[in-house]
């Protein structure tokens, strides 16, 4: 159950009560596609860097090791030794990202596995069954994510099919939650709003799915080719049509600035690969902007990545040492950068929640954006 604690303008401060614990929102979900955060990040690390929710990928875990294996191991929580909430996405994004490997029909989508080329069929029922086997806290509905700049006619047909698929997801999830051997009988289903950058299509779709009384709603199909301005415009238009008393999740977004702008527009769940992907390439976030630790100017820099940061990297190691590790291709260099970036994101979300609690989010947002523009 989602509890709306406070609002400031459209910005929401809430808490989602789940079977695996409470999620304080706004929240950034740390992306562990194959049941692990890339960069050799352990469950102990996640606890240390203030992670609330871990996100895993339905399609990838179905391909390897196989969701049946995860179920036999007691579900995803036991498998990866993580007892806090987990969200699994539905495999719908792979319909978009594996465009060259798939074929879409009313029943569902036929993929060729990116691992071994074998044929996989996934529709709404299959996606729900896989996610039920994984036993995640929150399962995402199976949808099609059309490219942001797709033709209007295509988007209309795609969104109509996504609505039909959502109804099938809801029925199947209800059935699975009743089974005796289900891993998590309290699994929650979030619906996904689509419509590319056509505000009217998105609004109509939002109204239709809001009527389905789901535990939460996502805005999908953004950050896939449109400009930041187009994304913010769509959020301004569509979020008011999603239930205010349910969590609103912006999928796959984004930069610290994207998150601040989206919180202001009423979004309270986020996920993105940026912090871990950038960290693996030596790009680290600070309150004064991003640093590239490969730069020669850090060769003799004895300071931590960011003064005053409490992450495992900044508590012990210098920029010079981490730069050396990265240059030497030592895995520890990547790991420290990923830990720092995730800690930075999780801490920023804490700050956002505190600012909303105290009614000073607008002031915090302006200050944070101004600060991050500056040079280190």
From TrEMBL:
Binding site for Zn(2+): 309, 311, 314, 340
Pfam families found in the cross-reference section: TGT (PF01702)
Domain of life: Bacteria
Keywords noted in UniProt: Glycosyltransferase, Metal-binding, Queuosine biosynthesis, Transferase, tRNA processing, Zinc
CC cofactor: Zn(2+)
Molecular function via GO: metal ion binding; tRNA-guanosine(34) queuine transglycosylase activity
Catalytic reaction list: 7-aminomethyl-7-carbaguanine + guanosine(34) in tRNA = 7-aminomethyl-7-carbaguanosine(34) in tRNA + guanine
Cofactor binding summary note: Binds 1 zinc ion per subunit.
Segments forming domain tRNA-guanine(15) transglycosylase-like: 10-373
Annotated pathway: tRNA modification; tRNA-queuosine biosynthesis
Keyword tRNA processing appears in the UniProt entry: yes
Enzyme active site: 89, 271
Annotated GO CC locations: cytosol
UniProt xrefs under InterPro entries: ArchSynthase1/Queuine_TRR, TGT, TGT-like_sf, tRNA_ribo_trans-like
Class of this enzyme: transferase
Binding site for substrate: 89-93, 143, 194, 221
Region (RNA binding): 252-258
GO biological process, one term: tRNA queuosine(34) biosynthetic process
Subunit composition and interactions: Homodimer. Within each dimer, one monomer is responsible for RNA recognition and catalysis, while the other monomer binds to the replacement base PreQ1.
Family: Belongs to the queuine tRNA-ribosyltransferase family.
Function: Catalyzes the base-exchange of a guanine (G) residue with the queuine precursor 7-aminomethyl-7-deazaguanine (PreQ1) at position 34 (anticodon wobble position) in tRNAs with GU(N) anticodons (tRNA-Asp, -Asn, -His and -Tyr). Catalysis occurs through a double-displacement mechanism. The nucleophile active site attacks the C1' of nucleotide 34 to detach the guanine base from the RNA, forming a covalent enzyme-RNA intermediate. The proton acceptor active site deprotonates the incoming PreQ1, allowing a nucleophilic attack on the C1' of the ribose to form the product.
Protein name as annotated: Queuine tRNA-ribosyltransferase
Organism: Eubacterium oxidoreducens
């Amino acid at each position: 159950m989602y509890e709306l604690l406070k609002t400031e303008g459209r910005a929401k401060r809430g808490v989602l009560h789940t079977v695996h614990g409470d999620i304080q929102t706004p929240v950034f979900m740390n992306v562990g596609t194959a049941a692990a955060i890339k960069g050799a990040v352990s469950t102990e690390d996640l606890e240390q860097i203030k992670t609330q929710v871990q996100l895993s990928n339905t399609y990838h875990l179905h391909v390897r090791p196989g969701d049946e294996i995860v179920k036999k191991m007691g579900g995803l929580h036991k498998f990866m030794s993580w007892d806090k909430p987990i969200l699994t996405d539905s495999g719908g994004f792979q319909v978009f990202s594996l465009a060259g490997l798939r074929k879409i029909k009313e029943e569902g989508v036929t993929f060729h596995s990116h691992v071994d080329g074998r044929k996989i069929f996934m529709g709404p029922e299959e996606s729900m069954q896989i996610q039920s086997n994984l036993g995640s806290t929150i399962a995402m509905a199976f949808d099609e994510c059309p490219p942001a700049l797709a033709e209007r006619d295509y988007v209309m047909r795609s969104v109509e099919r996504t609505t039909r698929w959502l109804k099938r997801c809801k029925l199947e999830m209800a059935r699975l939650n009743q089974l005796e051997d289900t891993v998590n009988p309290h699994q929650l289903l979030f619906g996904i709003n689509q419509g590319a950058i056509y505000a009217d299509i998105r609004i109509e779709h939002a109204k239709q799915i809001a009527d389905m009384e789901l535990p939460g709603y996502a805005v999908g199909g953004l950050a896939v080719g449109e400009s930041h301005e187009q994304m913010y415009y769509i959020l301004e238009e569509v979020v008011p049509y999603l239930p205010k008393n349910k969590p609103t999740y912006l999928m796959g977004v984004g930069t610290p600035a994207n998150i601040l702008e989206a919180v202001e527009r009423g979004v309270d769940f986020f996920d993105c690969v940026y912090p871990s992907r950038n960290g693996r390439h030596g790009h680290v976030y600070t309150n004064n902007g991003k640093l590239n630790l490969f730069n020669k100017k850090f060769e003799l820099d004895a300071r931590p990545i960011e003064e005053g940061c409490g992450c495992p990297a900044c508590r012990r190691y210098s920029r010079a040492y981490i730069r050396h590790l990265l240059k030497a291709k030592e895995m520890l260099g990547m790991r420290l950068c990923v830990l720092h970036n995730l800690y930075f994101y999780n801490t920023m979300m804490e700050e956002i929640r505190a600012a909303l609690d105290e009614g000073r989010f607008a002031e915090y947002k302006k200050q944070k954006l101004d600060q991050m523009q500056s040079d280190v």
